[in-house]
Design brief:
Shape: globular
Number of helices: 4
Largest sheet: 6 strands, antiparallel
CATH class: Mainly Beta
Number of strands: 9
Helix content: 25-40%
CATH topology: Immunoglobulin-like
Distance between the termini: 73 Å
CATH superfamily: Immunoglobulins
Structural class: alpha+beta
Radius of gyration: 21 Å
């Protein structure tokens, strides 16, 4: 009887400790800065920046050994009255953020072109590389004139890797998304 009670208390304490540790990461807030729909060299470009409000909590989360991913996905839709909007084009940028405990530096990798950047200060590293981002949504002439369009930018911060044993033990916990923001621009062409 004593051993079963001990096992239940032990499992409950693991769930509680895990919930407390991941609660700070859930509070992470993203902010989309200066989102502009632009025409550059005949192409549809989206210029924007991403800022994290609580870098210290992110630093703590990374020091525990779990990498994070920032996914920025831009989609262009043609508005329709009686049907669902038609997706014309989509583009995505993905960054992986990790902490290297041996060098005591943060590593930011652009997964699209495999460029890696290192820095000892997390806030400065993120500011330098996320303050000006750009998505290419194709040729401007490819969208028909005289219609209404919606551009949607979705920015998500999520866990890069979660150990399999933790997903199995805490199957009821959402391991995917830490924070998300959506920004929409409606325009006529």
């Amino acid at each position: 009887m004593f051993s079963n009670r001990f096992i239940y208390i032990f499992l409950a304490s693991i769930v509680f400790v895990t919930a407390v540790q991941t609660a700070g990461a859930k509070a992470q807030e993203l902010e989309i800065k200066n989102c502009v729909l632009d025409k550059k060299q005949g192409r549809i470009r989206i210029n924007f920046g991403v800022q994290l409000k609580q870098v210290k909590k992110l630093d703590q989360y990374l020091s525990e050994g779990s990498p994070l991913e920032l996914i920025c996905r831009g989609s262009l839709y043609q508005d329709r009255t009686f049907w669902m909007d038609k997706k014309l084009n989509q583009s995505q940028i993905t960054f992986r953020l990790d902490n290297n405990p041996l060098t005591q530096k943060y590593v930011l990798t652009d997964l699209g072109n495999q460029n890696s950047f290192e820095g000892s200060e997390l806030k400065k590293l993120l500011h330098n590389h996320w303050k000006e981002l750009e998505l290419d949504l194709g040729e401007w002439d490819s969208i028909p004139k005289g219609d209404d369009y919606t551009f949607q930018l979705q920015v998500m911060l999520k866990r890069g890797e979660v150990p399999g044993w933790m997903e199995f033990m805490l199957f009821f916990w959402s391991w995917d998304q830490l924070s998300s923001k959506v920004y929409e621009i409606e325009f006529s062409h």
